[in-house]
Amino acid sequence: MKELIIISGKGGTGKTSVAASLVALAKKSVVADCDVDAADLHLVLAPQVKKVEDFSGGKSATIMSDRCNNCGKCYEICRFGAVSKDESKQPAYSIDPIACEGCGVCSYFCLQKAIAFEPTVNGQWYISDTPYGPLVHARLSIAAENSGKLVSLVRSQAKMLAEKEELPYIIVDGPPGIGCPVIASITGADAVLIITEPTVSGEHDLERVAELVRYFKIPTYLCINKFDLNLEKSKSIEEKAVASGINVIGRIHYDRAVTGAQVKRVPVVKFARCTVAKDLRDIWDRLVTELN
Ligand code: SF4
Ligand code: SF4
């Protein structure tokens, strides 16, 4: 079983479009949407949800008013300013669930045992059927953190499914950027595919992401989306990639069929026999050779 992670230095490079088409071409794969802050692979893969579970990324504190004696200790010791004081209320102290970092210090030091410190539900994760194989996806609640932990959970569920159903590939639509969720999505993967675009920001983001994957020593491939919009920039990005030890696996033309496929909510390789579909088929064929 091989796990391919598709990432980009930033959002809006067409990463999810590419991921959806590779999933459709792979035929036998488990798909994992690890872009948990802005999951949208489900918009293209038409999933039928089979299982929903809550995700708890940490704990948070709440004051039990019937036990609190208004000593003010929690207000004094919370380093995150999450405890507020309002003497017109009873109890005078309350905890803002958004500001609470879940450190547990207030609960530990409250002599009245008046602070409950319990797991919070930060989102949900799902296992769904799609026409192209099972999909593991998730939704993080608004303002919830710990997306790295949710990414790890989605990946581990995808791995279990691939083992159970004896599927040869796990294709992961990773988060954009270079932060904690990206690190959680590439650690221990078999290969990384970077999608970028021929722009100044695309080039800059490639440099950042290349530095990250170099650290993890994972075989890494590059594909420039809409490369023909700026041939000079595409060439310069590819040269930089090669110099960083990244293999250029292919180029994808700009093609209006991609927008048409998005409107119809299908992977572009299932939408039309167009140039971009051929580019994606060539890329998948090369990736299969590299992965096996
Ligand atoms: S430390 Fe406990 S008893 Fe004191 S104000 Fe806070 S919740 Fe109330
Ligand atoms: S758990 Fe930590 S961050 Fe949250 S209110 Fe208590 S001391 Fe503050």
Could you describe the 3D structure shown?
There is one protein chain. The protein has helices at 15-26, 42-45, 73-77, 105-109, 147-165, 180-186, 200-216, 231-243, 257-264, 275-291, and strands spanning 2-8, 29-33, 48-55, 58-63, 83-85, 93-95, 115-120, 123-130, 133-140, 169-176, 191-196, 220-225, 247-252. It has 292 residues and is α/β, with parallel strands linked by helices. It folds into two domains: 2-56 and 122-291, 3-Layer(aba) Sandwich (Rossmann fold), CATH 3.40.50.300; 59-120, Alpha-Beta Plaits (2-Layer Sandwich). The strands form three sheets. The protein has a nine-stranded mixed sheet with strand order 3-8-9-2-10-1-11-12-13, sandwiched between helices. It has a two-stranded antiparallel sheet with strand order 4-7. Strands 5-6 form a two-stranded antiparallel sheet. Helix 8 links the parallel strand 12 (220-225) and strand 13 (247-252). The longest helix has 19 residues, at 147-165. It is elongated. The mean pLDDT is 92. One iron/sulfur cluster is lined by residues 63, 68-74, 91, 93, 110, 112, 114-115.
